Protein backbone atom coordinates (compact mmCIF):
# COMPACT_ATOMS: atom_id res chain seq x y z
CA UNK A 1 0.00 0.00 0.00
CA UNK A 2 2.74 2.41 1.03
CA UNK A 3 4.81 1.79 -2.09
CA UNK A 4 1.70 2.07 -4.26
CA UNK A 5 0.83 5.52 -2.87
CA UNK A 6 4.32 6.96 -3.25
CA UNK A 7 4.83 5.50 -6.70
CA UNK A 8 1.49 6.78 -7.98
CA UNK A 9 1.93 10.20 -6.36
CA UNK A 10 5.40 10.84 -7.76
CA UNK A 11 4.41 9.34 -11.11
CA UNK A 12 1.48 11.75 -11.39
CA UNK A 13 3.75 14.70 -10.60
CA UNK A 14 6.23 13.54 -13.22
CA UNK A 15 3.43 13.28 -15.77
CA UNK A 16 2.41 16.88 -15.03
CA UNK A 17 6.02 18.06 -15.47
CA UNK A 18 6.38 16.14 -18.72
CA UNK A 19 3.12 17.60 -19.99
CA UNK A 20 4.58 21.07 -19.43
CA UNK A 21 7.60 20.21 -21.58
CA UNK A 22 5.47 18.71 -24.36
CA UNK A 23 3.11 21.69 -24.29
CA UNK A 24 6.02 24.12 -24.54
CA UNK A 25 7.43 22.21 -27.51
CA UNK A 26 4.06 22.16 -29.23
CA UNK A 27 3.55 25.89 -28.70
CA UNK A 28 6.88 26.53 -30.44
CA UNK A 29 6.28 24.32 -33.46
CA UNK A 30 6.35 27.43 -35.69
CA UNK A 31 9.08 29.34 -33.80
CA UNK A 32 12.10 30.02 -35.99
CA UNK A 33 15.20 28.05 -34.95
CA UNK A 34 13.52 26.47 -31.91
CA UNK A 35 15.12 23.35 -30.43
CA UNK A 36 12.78 20.81 -28.83
CA UNK A 37 13.27 20.22 -25.13
CA UNK A 38 13.80 16.65 -23.96
CA UNK A 39 12.42 15.21 -20.74
CA UNK A 40 13.09 12.01 -18.81
CA UNK A 41 12.41 10.51 -15.38
CA UNK A 42 14.10 8.07 -13.02
CA UNK A 43 13.12 6.39 -9.77
CA UNK A 44 14.98 7.24 -6.57
CA UNK A 45 14.46 6.17 -2.93
CA UNK A 46 13.06 8.79 -0.58
CA UNK A 47 15.83 10.41 1.50
CA UNK A 48 15.77 12.06 4.93
CA UNK A 49 13.58 11.38 7.97
CA UNK A 50 10.98 9.56 5.86
CA UNK A 51 13.52 7.03 4.58
CA UNK A 52 11.87 3.63 4.16
CA UNK A 53 12.71 0.86 1.73
CA UNK A 54 9.11 0.77 0.54
CA UNK A 55 9.05 4.42 -0.50
CA UNK A 56 10.29 5.27 -3.95
CA UNK A 57 9.69 8.49 -5.84
CA UNK A 58 10.01 9.51 -9.47
CA UNK A 59 12.36 12.42 -10.19
CA UNK A 60 11.99 14.43 -13.37
CA UNK A 61 15.18 15.25 -15.20
CA UNK A 62 15.68 17.32 -18.33
CA UNK A 63 18.63 15.73 -20.15
CA UNK A 64 18.91 18.54 -22.67
CA UNK A 65 17.56 19.51 -26.04
CA UNK A 66 17.08 17.95 -29.43
CA UNK A 67 19.78 19.57 -31.57
CA UNK A 68 18.72 18.04 -34.87
CA UNK A 69 18.35 20.56 -37.68
CA UNK A 70 14.96 21.98 -38.54
CA UNK A 71 13.65 22.57 -42.07
CA UNK A 72 15.27 25.46 -43.97
CA UNK A 73 12.97 27.75 -45.94
CA UNK A 74 14.25 30.35 -48.39
CA UNK A 75 12.58 33.72 -47.87
CA UNK A 76 14.66 36.05 -50.01
CA UNK A 77 14.72 38.64 -47.20
CA UNK A 78 18.17 40.22 -46.81
CA UNK A 79 18.15 40.07 -43.00
CA UNK A 80 17.03 36.44 -42.75
CA UNK A 81 19.85 33.97 -42.09
CA UNK A 82 20.00 30.24 -41.40
CA UNK A 83 23.04 28.78 -39.65
CA UNK A 84 24.69 25.86 -41.41
CA UNK A 85 25.52 22.65 -39.56
CA UNK A 86 26.59 23.23 -35.95
CA UNK A 87 27.00 27.00 -36.31
CA UNK A 88 25.24 29.25 -33.75
CA UNK A 89 24.76 33.02 -33.68
CA UNK A 90 25.93 35.03 -30.68
CA UNK A 91 23.47 37.53 -29.19
CA UNK A 92 23.52 39.71 -26.08
CA UNK A 93 20.97 38.53 -23.49
CA UNK A 94 18.99 40.83 -21.24
CA UNK A 95 21.33 40.05 -18.33
CA UNK A 96 24.36 41.18 -20.34
CA UNK A 97 25.79 37.72 -21.00
CA UNK A 98 26.66 36.34 -24.41
CA UNK A 99 24.19 33.66 -25.49
CA UNK A 100 23.61 31.61 -28.61
CA UNK A 101 20.66 30.94 -30.86
CA UNK A 102 19.67 29.35 -34.15
CA UNK A 103 16.99 31.95 -34.77
CA UNK A 104 17.88 34.13 -37.73
CA UNK A 105 15.03 36.57 -38.44
CA UNK A 106 17.06 39.75 -37.80
CA UNK A 107 15.82 43.33 -37.61
CA UNK A 108 17.25 46.84 -37.40
CA UNK A 109 16.10 49.25 -34.71
CA UNK A 110 15.69 53.02 -35.13
CA UNK A 111 19.40 53.50 -34.35
CA UNK A 112 20.52 50.95 -36.93
CA UNK A 113 21.53 48.31 -34.35
CA UNK A 114 21.14 44.75 -35.64
CA UNK A 115 18.74 42.85 -33.38
CA UNK A 116 17.67 39.26 -32.87
CA UNK A 117 14.18 39.29 -31.31
CA UNK A 118 14.99 42.59 -29.61
CA UNK A 119 18.49 41.53 -28.48
CA UNK A 120 21.68 42.93 -30.05
CA UNK A 121 23.54 40.61 -32.39
CA UNK A 122 27.17 40.26 -31.36
CA UNK A 123 30.00 41.04 -33.75
CA UNK A 124 33.75 40.75 -33.35
CA UNK A 125 33.83 43.88 -31.19
CA UNK A 126 30.34 43.93 -29.70
CA UNK A 127 26.89 44.84 -31.05
CA UNK A 128 26.70 45.68 -34.75
CA UNK A 129 25.39 49.04 -36.01
CA UNK A 130 24.36 49.68 -39.61
CA UNK A 131 23.97 53.14 -41.23
CA UNK A 132 20.31 54.14 -41.27
CA UNK A 133 18.59 53.70 -44.59
CA UNK A 134 21.44 51.62 -45.99
CA UNK A 135 20.94 48.59 -48.22
CA UNK A 136 22.25 45.63 -46.22
CA UNK A 137 23.59 42.26 -47.35
CA UNK A 138 25.03 39.39 -45.29
CA UNK A 139 27.76 37.09 -46.59
CA UNK A 140 28.12 33.38 -45.94
CA UNK A 141 30.78 34.01 -43.27
CA UNK A 142 28.54 36.49 -41.44
CA UNK A 143 30.13 39.61 -42.91
CA UNK A 144 27.63 42.48 -43.10
CA UNK A 145 28.00 44.93 -45.96
CA UNK A 146 25.99 48.08 -46.55
CA UNK A 147 25.42 50.56 -49.35
CA UNK A 148 24.61 53.99 -47.89
CA UNK A 149 21.27 55.50 -48.84
CA UNK A 150 21.42 57.23 -52.22
CA UNK A 151 24.75 55.65 -53.18
CA UNK A 152 25.60 53.08 -55.84
CA UNK A 153 27.21 49.62 -55.53
CA UNK A 154 30.66 51.19 -55.66
CA UNK A 155 30.01 52.67 -52.20
CA UNK A 156 29.68 49.21 -50.61
CA UNK A 157 31.37 49.10 -47.19
CA UNK A 158 31.82 46.40 -44.55
CA UNK A 159 30.18 47.39 -41.27
CA UNK A 160 30.75 44.29 -39.16
CA UNK A 161 30.66 40.54 -38.94
CA UNK A 162 28.20 38.38 -37.06
CA UNK A 163 29.92 36.25 -34.44
CA UNK A 164 29.35 32.59 -35.25
CA UNK A 165 30.43 29.76 -32.97
CA UNK A 166 30.44 25.97 -33.27
CA UNK A 167 30.16 24.72 -29.68
CA UNK A 168 29.94 21.24 -28.29
CA UNK A 169 26.16 21.27 -28.23
CA UNK A 170 25.99 18.83 -25.31
CA UNK A 171 27.68 21.50 -23.15
CA UNK A 172 25.11 24.17 -23.99
CA UNK A 173 22.52 25.00 -21.35
CA UNK A 174 19.07 26.34 -22.21
CA UNK A 175 17.99 29.38 -20.20
CA UNK A 176 14.48 30.40 -19.23
CA UNK A 177 14.61 32.97 -22.03
CA UNK A 178 15.03 30.20 -24.62
CA UNK A 179 18.64 31.16 -25.37
CA UNK A 180 21.57 28.79 -24.91
CA UNK A 181 24.65 29.49 -22.83
CA UNK A 182 28.14 28.04 -22.81
CA UNK A 183 29.90 26.14 -20.01
CA UNK A 184 30.47 27.94 -16.70
CA UNK A 185 33.80 29.72 -16.19
CA UNK A 186 35.89 29.91 -13.01
CA UNK A 187 33.55 32.58 -11.60
CA UNK A 188 30.59 30.24 -12.02
CA UNK A 189 29.10 32.29 -14.85
CA UNK A 190 28.45 31.23 -18.46
CA UNK A 191 31.57 31.96 -20.49
CA UNK A 192 31.74 33.42 -23.99
CA UNK A 193 32.70 30.90 -26.65
CA UNK A 194 35.38 31.71 -29.24
CA UNK A 195 34.24 32.65 -32.72
CA UNK A 196 34.71 30.15 -35.53
CA UNK A 197 36.13 31.56 -38.77
CA UNK A 198 34.92 28.48 -40.63
CA UNK A 199 31.28 28.69 -39.51
CA UNK A 200 28.85 29.54 -42.28
CA UNK A 201 25.29 30.72 -42.72
CA UNK A 202 22.80 31.00 -45.57
CA UNK A 203 21.47 34.47 -46.32
CA UNK A 204 17.84 34.93 -47.33
CA UNK A 205 16.69 31.77 -45.50
CA UNK A 206 15.33 30.71 -42.11
CA UNK A 207 15.61 27.45 -40.20
CA UNK A 208 12.31 26.39 -38.72
CA UNK A 209 11.55 24.59 -35.48
CA UNK A 210 12.65 20.94 -35.24
CA UNK A 211 9.49 20.06 -33.29
CA UNK A 212 7.16 17.62 -35.04
CA UNK A 213 3.56 18.66 -34.38
CA UNK A 214 2.36 15.07 -34.87
CA UNK A 215 4.91 13.60 -32.44
CA UNK A 216 4.15 16.32 -29.87
CA UNK A 217 0.41 15.64 -30.07
CA UNK A 218 0.96 11.88 -29.66
CA UNK A 219 3.20 12.54 -26.65
CA UNK A 220 0.61 14.84 -25.12
CA UNK A 221 -2.09 12.18 -25.40
CA UNK A 222 0.25 9.51 -24.01
CA UNK A 223 1.23 11.64 -21.01
CA UNK A 224 -2.42 12.51 -20.29
CA UNK A 225 -3.35 8.81 -20.24
CA UNK A 226 -0.46 7.97 -17.93
CA UNK A 227 -1.53 10.76 -15.57
CA UNK A 228 -5.07 9.35 -15.51
CA UNK A 229 -3.63 5.92 -14.73
CA UNK A 230 -1.63 7.29 -11.79
CA UNK A 231 -4.68 9.08 -10.40
CA UNK A 232 -6.69 5.85 -10.69
CA UNK A 233 -3.97 4.07 -8.70
CA UNK A 234 -4.28 6.69 -5.95
CA UNK A 235 -8.04 6.22 -5.90
CA UNK A 236 -7.63 2.44 -5.75
CA UNK A 237 -5.13 2.72 -2.90
CA UNK A 238 -7.59 4.91 -0.97
CA UNK A 239 -10.39 2.39 -1.51
CA UNK A 240 -8.16 -0.48 -0.39
CA UNK A 241 -7.19 1.44 2.76
CA UNK A 242 -10.83 2.12 3.61
CA UNK A 243 -11.72 -1.56 3.16
CA UNK A 244 -8.76 -2.61 5.32
CA UNK A 245 -9.87 -0.20 8.06
CA UNK A 246 -13.39 -1.63 7.90
CA UNK A 247 -12.11 -5.19 8.28
CA UNK A 248 -9.90 -4.19 11.22
CA UNK A 249 -12.79 -2.41 12.96
CA UNK A 250 -14.99 -5.48 12.55
CA UNK A 251 -12.30 -7.77 13.95
CA UNK A 252 -11.78 -5.36 16.85
UniProtKB/TrEMBL annotation:
Residues covered by the Flagellar basal body rod protein N-terminal domain: 5-35
Keyword list, A-Z: Bacterial flagellum, Cell projection, Cilium, Flagellum
GO annotation, cellular component aspect: bacterial-type flagellum basal body, rod
Pfam families membership: Flg_bb_rod, Flg_bbr_C, LlgE_F_G_D1
Membrane-crossing residue ranges in chain numbering: none
Keyword DNA damage: no
Domain Flagellar basal-body/hook protein C-terminal: 203-247
Residue ranges occupied by any Flagellar hook protein FlgE/F/G-like D1 domain in the UniProt entry: 82-146
Domain of life: Bacteria
GO biological process: bacterial-type flagellum-dependent swarming motility
SUPFAM superfamilies per UniProt: Flagellar hook protein flgE
Compartments, as annotated in UniProt: Bacterial flagellum basal body
Region (Disordered): 174-194
InterPro entries xref list: Flag_bb_rod_N, Flagellar_FlgE/F/G, Flg_bb/hook_C_dom, FlgE/F/G-like, LlgE_F_G-like_D1
Family assignment from sequence similarity: Belongs to the flagella basal body rod proteins family.
PANTHER family: FLAGELLAR BASAL-BODY ROD PROTEIN FLGF, FLAGELLAR PROTEIN
Quaternary state and interactors: The basal body constitutes a major portion of the flagellar organelle and consists of five rings (E,L,P,S, and M) mounted on a central rod. The rod consists of about 26 subunits of FlgG in the distal portion, and FlgB, FlgC and FlgF are thought to build up the proximal portion of the rod with about 6 subunits each.
Protein known as: Flagellar basal-body rod protein FlgF
